[in-house]
Amino acid sequence: MPLRITYIGGPTALLEFGGLRLLTDPTFDPPGGEYTSGPVTLHKTAGPAIPVESLSFDVVLLSHDHHADNLDQLGHAALTRAQKVFTTVAGAARLGGNAIGLAPWASVTVPASGGHSLQVTGTPGRHGPEGGDRGPVTGFLLQSADAPDSAVYVSGDTVWYEGLNAIREHARIDRAVLFMGAARVPEVGPAHLTMSAEDGVQFARGFPDAAIVPLHFEGWKHFSESRPEISAAFAKAGLEHRLHWLPPGRPTDL
Fold this sequence. Notes:
Blueprint: E1 3-9, E2 12-17, E3 20-24, E4 34-37, E5 40-43, E6 59-61, H1 73-78, E7 84-87, H2 89-95, E8 99-101, E9 107-111, E10 117-123, E11 139-144, E12 151-154, E13 173-179, H3 197-206, E14 211-215, H4 227-236, E15 252-253
Parallel strand pairs: 3-6, 6-7, 7-8, 12-13, 13-14
Antiparallel strand pairs: 1-2, 1-15, 2-3, 4-5, 9-10, 10-11, 11-12
């Protein structure tokens, strides 16, 4: 099943798959913004490659609604343009409207063009080390009714941990969009809150059929790793051929 991805910036990409246009974690504010939540202030350093008003989309895949680097002001305003917004159960309760909460392994079938349909399934996630209080997050499995034996995985903000192994029981992943960058904020401590380069390597080893597409490794000040660190870790593991870097603003077929 063809997958076309257009990288927009940060955690935001447009996926064209199974007859639908799906937008991941919408962030469209210009650079220079500061976003404070509790003791943490996040700093945005880059704007989107494509302005939100130039995009059309059917579905939003929102890993969580409570951090601005995954849903900024213009991204939040764009949610009403989608038919459905899939997110966490808690996030859907906050957002209301067209938001649908997905608990881990809960699925919704979305009608698509040409009589097709796409199944969207929530997956587990952990936004940093065990025992932290950073709120619930979700990832997503995308499976077309026309090719049910394989799936696209969108990680959302999670680290690599044992809970992700269960994905293998539900689908064969042939393309994985991983939120990386090893996000760190001093108020939380030294632990990374999104996948590190080594986490990405562990995922690639655990899912040997998956092409790996890194997202969410640039555009915000709190990332501690970017493309050089990710490429070096995959090269050291002999897995650099599995990485697919997306040019900003240009559709790429995988």
